[in-house]
Design a protein that fits this description.
Blueprint lengths: L7 H14 L3 E5 L3 H4 L3 H6 L10 E3 L5 E3 L3 E4 L4 H4 L5 E8 L2 E11 L5 E4 L5 E2 L12 E5 L10 E3 L1 E2 L19 H16 L4 H5 L3 H11 L17 E5 L3 E7 L21 E9 L7 E15 L5 E11 L1 H10 L5
Parallel strand pairs: 11-12
Antiparallel strand pairs: 1-2, 1-5, 3-4, 4-7, 5-6, 6-7, 6-8, 9-10, 9-14, 12-13, 13-16, 14-15, 15-16
Amino acid sequence: MNSNELTGIEIQLVLQYLVDGNVPLTVTPVQNKTDSEKDDFTQKKKSPAFSAVFPVALQAKDITVLKQGIILLENPKDSVKAFSGKNVKVQFYFNKLGLYFETQMKQTSSGSLALVIPHSIKKIQEEEINAEGDFSAVIYLQADSAKEKSQVKCSFLENYPLFQIPKWKDVQEKYQLKTKDCLQKIIAQIRSKEGGDGLIGNGVHLITVSRFLAGEKSQKKSSNMQKVFPPSILYIDTHRIVFGEEMADFSPEVKSNFFRTIFQEETEYGLLLSFPIFSGPIKERIVYLNFKIDSIFYDEEKTKAVSVGRFTSIQEEDSRFLEDKFPSQK
């Protein structure tokens, strides 16, 4: 038996847990071999709906788990109906342990949807977790303070996967010209500073900086016209970290002077990274470091900002841990 598979007794415990708790689930379509063998004409003729490609979250109140090992969705939403007759991956948490199984979503005679829990349930491996769920990050606005009011929790953006080297092909074609112009201005701005070439380094992170500033505007809405969303981590390696901030898209009449980033240049901050561990007695790997903001860049409308930080203090073992996830960039 694969070490990632649950034993028969463990499956019984999980099944009882699902029956008793009606825990929330995430359902993702599984690509069938027959689908990949279709010719290009067939694929283009019938493009999949958004819900048929991306995961759909099922809340506990929307599902019923029977003792026979069947999950019922009595009044499924249209986004879930798109999975009917398809093989799907079902993910959930059991006592903070990520688990998943694959099965087929079937439609019952009453119109409900049903998922039969198979005899094989596996543990989610770390590399299977989406980048947004790989770890959590908290900024300490006062590097030496642990007070809650000085803490800001970071968010993540799906289109900016972490621990990967940014590539020019990541930039959408329609934004490449604007991004190139933005990149050239950023490099010139950095080089105008004392020791600017040292701040540039190998420059790969600047692709991310210019891509964020020149790219598509956020579709996030807020009733607060001065709402600035929490900083998102756009890039991280063993030396640098890049944060993106953005105002809510509430109206075209916004005045640019409303925007205020939480960071200041030449100021030091603390950062706590928590990486979940899904096996063994230790449940998370903590990395604490200090960083200083070297540069802050804004887009033309002053509704987006990117802050580039350089690590000023990090334990050697923490640096090695990050290096294992993403090769050192010097």
